[in-house]
Amino acid sequence: MKKTLIAHSPDADDIFMYYAIKFGWVDMKDTHFDNIAKDIQTLNEDALNGVYDIVAISFALYPHIKEEYAPLRTAVSFGEGYGPKVIKRKGQKLKRNFKVALSGEHTTNAMLFRIAYPDARITYMNFLEIEDAVKEGKVDAGVLIHESILTFADELEVEREMWDIWQELAGKELPLPLGGMAIRRSLPLNRAIDYENTLTKAVQVARDHKERLSQMLLERDLVRIDGATLEKYLELYANDDSITLSPVQYEAINKLFEIGYEHGFYDRPVNVHDYLIPTQYTELRES
């Protein structure tokens, strides 16, 4: 059997969307899946270096890897009226050039933040360290992602929602594209299609059996949060809209790429539809 490694982040939504495969509820012929969990910026860097065949990425990274990877239509996370948060210590007034901790240079929140706050002094660190860095005064503010947007300390407060920044830049209400999966282009096309179908089924099965799967993740200490927080978090980032990309999600991704190009983050315009796996290949082959 061919061993296939899927690299994803250690946050609860990625784990939830993958573990239907890990628990054997979904499989693929002649394939043994395994997984590795790393923070999102490390995964972005691994994608830039072509380390994995299938890897979770920030959407903002994709134009930098478009020649080597295709975006998958499944296991996607968007914000809908919510998203990463710029937080600070309560009562603190931020200066124009405040020092801020971000979770990685190639994350979606970093690109949007840099556009909104061009004078801020940025330092990058693991997302798990940001809250403490703000509490301890090592930085003036930080952008919280993943589960920490629900669990940050009472001594901190929200300076600004990344959702609001996104809406201002997008010029209309669109879901905020945060993260998805990418697959190496050099894989045989029929196998890439099978991988995408399998991962799509895994997210569908996870959603269909959400209560049971969530309980198993909690019992095995595979997530960092309690049951009530997990329930809320999954409805934010691993919901029914995570199963397969919708027309409005495609529009949002393209708007993100357009904003990035206009602000000099990409060297040319990118349309996500031009880089998807051509699934019509299967229909043509079987017709």
UniProtKB/TrEMBL annotation:
Pfam families: VitK2_biosynth (PF02621). Its EC number is 4.1.99.29. Pathway: Quinol/quinone metabolism; menaquinone biosynthesis. It catalyses: cyclic dehypoxanthinylfutalosinate = 1,4-dihydroxy-6-naphthoate + dihydroxyacetone. One of its GO terms (molecular function) is carbon-carbon lyase activity. InterPro entries: Menaquinone_biosynth, MqnD. The active site is at residue 146. Keywords: Lyase, Menaquinone biosynthesis. GO terms for biological process: menaquinone biosynthetic process. The keyword Ion transport does not apply. The keyword Lyase applies. Catalyzes the conversion of cyclic dehypoxanthine futalosine (cyclic DHFL) into 1,4-dihydroxy-6-naphthoate, a step in the biosynthesis of menaquinone (MK, vitamin K2). Belongs to the MqnA/MqnD family. MqnD subfamily. This is 1,4-dihydroxy-6-naphtoate synthase. It comes from Sulfurimonas autotrophica (strain ATCC BAA-671 / DSM 16294 / JCM 11897 / OK10). The lineage of its organism: Bacteria, Pseudomonadati, Campylobacterota, Epsilonproteobacteria, Campylobacterales.
